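Internal tracking record. Fields below are filled automatically when a chain is submitted to the structure queue. Please do not edit lines marked as system-generated. If the sequence contains nonstandard residues, flag them in the REMARKS field before resubmitting.
Queue: standard
Priority: normal
Entity type: single polypeptide chain
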Amino acid sequence: MAKQQVTVPDIGGAEGAEVIELLVAVGDEIALDQSLIVLESDKASMEIPSTAAGTLVELLVAEGQELAEGSVVAIIEAAGDSPAQQAAPSSVADESEPEPEPEPEPEQEATSEPQAAAHVEAAVASAVSPAQSAEQVVPVPDIGTDEAVELIEVCVKVGDAVAEGDSLVVLESDKASMEVPAPAAGEVLEILVAEGGSVKQGDPLLRLQSVAGDSIAPAPAPAPAAASAPVPAGQPKPIAKAAVPAAAPAKPAAAAPASNKDIYAGPAVRKLAREFGVELGLVTGTGPRGRILKEDLQSFVQNSLKAGPAAAAAAAAGGALPTIPDIDFSAFGEVEITQRSKLDKLTAANMQRNWLNVPHVTQFDEADITELEVFRASLKAEAEQRGTRLTPMPFLLKACAVALRDNPKFCSGLAADGEQLVYKKYIHIGMAVDTPAGLVVPVIRDVDKKTIWELAEEVLLLAGKARDRKLTPAQMQGGCFTISSLGNIGGNGFTPIVNAPEVGILGVSRAAMRPVWDGEVFAPRKMLPLSLSYDHRVINGGDGGRFFARLLTLLADIRQLVM
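SYSTEM-GENERATED OUTPUT FOLLOWS
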């Protein structure tokens, strides 16, 4: 089976376009013309299709990367002959039995090889011609198809002054979206279309009073279907929708919220926002320069649904939590501004979501780990022989697994409707790891079935992968409970935030020797401060107390771990 490269086709002469979404992963079975990635430039977004069918063996791009025409996107191990080879027999048949060519209409030539995503600026520029009248009708330019497309946004309103090149409307199909620019500077006199309607090439969009006195040539009649040549394989698919009658003239006042012009979001995100029914002005962007990403939109919708209809309605009406005012700290002295990592921002968003949606309760206690530490120290030589290191974490994991088994409510999850509890028959425990890029939580599976030595090796392995940013998504999913340890950093306790949809998390602080009254004298004991936070919708104080009591007993006498 031959390996074939998939490259970026003609993207309209743009110097570069940003990869905003990966649609496939290595190992996926790819069909011919299946979309692989989504590119976005200043004016349009488009999906790049595969030029071969087979197995994806290598993906050579990443989100946020800038690509130009000819850049290699992926390598596909073809299941059979290449598309070019498969097309050869049909081309021979065509030569042997040529079909009669249709006669062209008078004063009209057939168009050969139209671009999949029309170069709107060039098309409009070619339509501009000097005229006596300063008033112009701006039509839909050549969009590479005779069928109707959806008009998703009107970017101006009557009375607006626009400069040459300013976006007037946005057109969109299933595969691409594009902005139609103003052919000249001037004032918008009338808007002739409505958002949500369908338009075709040549349909009038608006009337423009040109400052320079230029005008648009009369809109040509739509070309017949025979005049359109098929799009070559590998090109971005042209925008196309079922033909719908042109929309009625729009109401100028309802064109588009003025605030939308100041929102930094790509066409794909704007389309998703319309599908969700979300006003983009309410969403906080976490992308570069504050751009709204798909993840931001999805998090906003998820939070609104969890908060309930009343809270969602209040947020839509401007009744959300008051925002902290933006302060210019440089007014008080020298400052340095750095960009937060994507992982850091994602962690912050998750923490805020969990804190706002989960009613937290935290209980504090101390575990006597004197005997545990003596036993751990006695195993140091054996750990070196095994090529590992025995930290307190494997013992904490094992003790929590037994406590979870004995207190199954802590190993449950609340159903989305809040009417049911889902009890998990497995015990997977997350372990929070602090990395230079931010906090990550790899999950150790089936903790109750593993030995202390197996847990010790897995703890070191996953912690190393976390710091090297080599964890896979599967290694960070499926947890039932989480342990967040400050280790030797310090502190006598803290309130860890529950990692929803889990219902409990254990915070571990620094152990210290303390005098403990044994009934007769004060004896030195090594005490470990613990903090247990839980979701009070599922766990009550009695449940938390029983879990804590069982955990402290196990840590004080580790022999009970084998009982």
